[in-house]
Amino acid sequence: MERVPLERKVLSENDRLAAGLRERFREHGVLCLNIISSPGSGKTSLLERTLESLPRGERVAVLTGDIQTDNDAARLRRFRFPVKQITTGGTCHLDARMIERHLEDWPLENLDLLLIENVGNLVCPSSYDLGEAAKIVLLSVTEGEDKPLKYPSIFFKSELLVLTKTDLLPYVPFDIDAAADNARRVHPGMEIVKVSNLTGNGLHEWLMWLERKRRAVKTVAQVG
Amino acid sequence: MERVPLERKVLSENDRLAAGLRERFREHGVLCLNIISSPGSGKTSLLERTLESLPRGERVAVLTGDIQTDNDAARLRRFRFPVKQITTGGTCHLDARMIERHLEDWPLENLDLLLIENVGNLVCPSSYDLGEAAKIVLLSVTEGEDKPLKYPSIFFKSELLVLTKTDLLPYVPFDIDAAADNARRVHPGMEIVKVSNLTGNGLHEWLMWLERKRRAVKTVAQVG
After folding, report:
1. Tens digit of pLDDT for each residue in A171-215?
2. A1·B91 Cβ contact <8 A
């Protein structure tokens, strides 16, 4: 997007709203994660595998963003956790106001984990804070190991890189070590997990990361 | 992106510049194509295969857009046609002004075909006219057959859909007929070619389409 003055105003208004959301998430001990990738890198599939793995009583909810359609919400509702689709109608990213509006009838005191699936776009979502505790970026092994260098902002701002579709590694010219090196050139020390949503390989590492984050939030909430 | 008043102004200024470019391309009989897709769908690979297939003397040039790096230009220069990288430095799309500026020292009278590779993004580039004769959208078979419905604008505005990475069809849950149906729900009658840049399968159909477009432009230029 263009760094025109109006956009700076939009961004600073977004930052203000996001700070409010972050404060509310902190108060209620809610871990909020903002999941970002290109279209078709496996965000919805990773959420399917994640919801599938969680016991029915867990206090988990999902907001899923798309330009058009509510396909993703329909896929995710099968797991019986609360899911809402945010249809942006052309806007290339989610923003804090959309999150605020869609949380109005979801009391945060009933939640421990809020998973936000952003619009499929490796560029614009990186500029819009949603009040999340962490951004997570997905990169599928079919997209090429150069992507962290070409789209550095989102790799710099994300706490975790999930390399997806590892089941396709035998069939694509993708150097997974080079991909990790490129990510860490942009973001030294970046955490990386490698998963196949299709076969389930590596999902355990992702779920362990998630569990660690959830425990950290609960500890902070108890101490606070 | 947000439909705020300033953005409308930016878009109408872009449309004005694009109309000027289109007029210049027409005058000089240059076919200009604007190639758009998600990151990693195979835009650069398709251009590699295309340049490789063209006789050395052809009057062809490439502009290739990225947020960061000039990797793509480096890959494409091997084929000895003029190539320039446009590094947008954060902007999520190419615009007509960038094209105008990068054409300043390329006399259009020396060109028959200008291939523009846009920034990897299925959303924002669809709003920015570059003066092209046609937009071309790529969708790789690893991205899911629902994408035309989720990102309708670019499928509606593109003359041709290139389904890429067909060599991976045996390994992914992708229904290629459903993908074509979805594209044609958004864009009735849309032309579709299916290619593998890796194996070369289907490239002939793409090259035939390109040749047909080039001949049409030449005919118009001769008549005019």
Report:
1. 999 999 999 999 999 999 999 999 999 999 999 999 999 999 999
2. yes
The amino acid that residue A51 corresponds to is L
In the structure encoding, which two tokens stand for residue B15, read together?
């449309």
8 A C-beta contact, residue B23 and residue B104: no
* Closest approach of B191 to chain A, Cα-based (Å): 22
Q: Are A192 and A163 spatial neighbours (Cβ–Cβ below 8 Å)?
A: yes
pTM of this structure: 0.94
Task: Report yes or no: B37 and B195 within 8 Å, Cβ to Cβ.
Answer: no
Q: In three state form, how does the secondary structure of chain B look?
A: CCCCHHHHHHHHHHHHHHHHHHHHHHHCCCEEEEEECCCCCCHHHHHHHHHHHCCCCCCEEEEEEECCCCHHHHHHHCCCCCEEEEECCCCCCCCHHHHHHHCCCCCHHHCCEEEEECCCCCCHHHHCCCCCCEEEEEEECCCCCCHHHHCHHHHHHEEEEEEECHHHHHHCCCCHHHHHHHHHHHCCCCEEEECCCCCCCCHHHHHHHHHHHHHHHHHHHHHC
- What are A156-173's pLDDT values in tens digits? 999 999 999 999 999 999
Using CB atoms, pick whichever of A10, A39, A165 lies closest to residue B122. A39
Which residues on B lie below 8 Å from A126 (Cβ)?
none
